[in-house]
Amino acid sequence: MDLEPIGVCPYHGFYRGERCPKCKRVGMHIMNGEEADMLSRRMTAALRHSPEKFGLSMDKHGWVKISELASALRRIRKLKWVKPTHIIAVALTDPKGRYHVNPDKGLIRASYGHTIEIDISDYPDASEYKYLYYPATEEEVDIILISGLKPSERSLIHLSTTLEQAISAGRVHTEDPIILTIDAKSAMNDGVVIKKASPYLCIAKEIPSRYINILGKASEIERVIQ
Ligand SMILES: [Zn+2]
Q1: Does the model's pTM come out above 0.85?
Q2: How far is CA 50 from the centre of its chain?
Q3: Structure letter (DSSP) for residue 177
Q4: How remote is the CA of residue 121 from the centroid of ligand 1, in Å?
Q5: Which of 3, 134, 154, 188 has the fewest Cβ atoms surrounding its Cβ within 10 A?
Q6: DSSP string of 104-165?
Q7: 30 alpha carbon – ligand 1 mean position (Å)
Q8: Sheet holding 28-31, edge to edge
Q9: How large is the greatest C-alpha to C-alpha distance in the chain, in angstroms?
Q10: What are 78-132's pLDDT values in tens digits?
Q11: What is the fold, at CATH topology level, of the domain defined by 6-110?
């Protein structure tokens, strides 16, 4: 559940929960959990899927002006109260790392989940990861092993940085996903572009099949890990 309130500590900045997790002080209240959830849903809708519907101008890397996003969202009746601070507070405390913020330039973008096309060349490289993981359904596996990974409903492929993350992402679609291992290091050495989107996710346009192997079913992997 995401529905924790957001506050700001004078020493440690924005946080989710009742108190600053670092110093345990009760900071200034910014918004309640329902408000944060409602705002975040509209932010991802605008930044991942339909900036034009919100009247936003977006650059090719997916960035929009925080001030423009705030005024666009204020046109929604339930979000008349939104100021740039609220957007920054939601973005910086997002538990999944859904947003990138550039405070110096006053810009924000969705870090992943886009259905619109964006240029990911300004994302940080995923060079810290040797292996990445992808959860597939039984029906998908054979095709992936032959033709590689290609985006389907989203514009980019999402690769998990940990096994646990891949398993829980896969369980959204199927009870016992098959976890594939991506030899990210070799792929990047060979020039395949893989970028880091959040602490949990990397993104790529395409992963050729020669870097993909079957690790096993989620249920079997969990038995080994535990
Ligand atoms: Zn604090």
Answers
A1: yes
A2: 17
A3: P
A4: 35
A5: 3
A6: TTTEEEESS--SS----TTSPB-TT-SEEEEEE-HHHHHHHHHH-B--SSSSSEEEESSHHH
A7: 14
A8: 13-16, 6-9, 28-31
A9: 55
A10: 999 999 999 999 999 999 999 999 999 999 999 999 999 999 999 999 999 999 9
A11: Arc Repressor Mutant, subunit A (1.10.10)
Q: Is 67 or 153 the better-scoring residue by pLDDT?
A: 67
Residue of 121, 42, 33 whose CA lies nearest to 79:
42
CA of 200 to the centre of ligand 1 (A): 25
- Every domain of the chain with CATH number 3.20.170.30 lies at 131-225
Q: What is the pLDDT of residue 121?
A: 96
Residue 82 Cα to ligand 1 middle (Å)? 24
Q: What is the CATH number of domain 131-225?
A: 3.20.170.30
- Describe the strand order of the beta sheet including 201-204 as a list of residue ranges: 194-196, 201-204, 157-160, 131-136, 178-183, 212-217
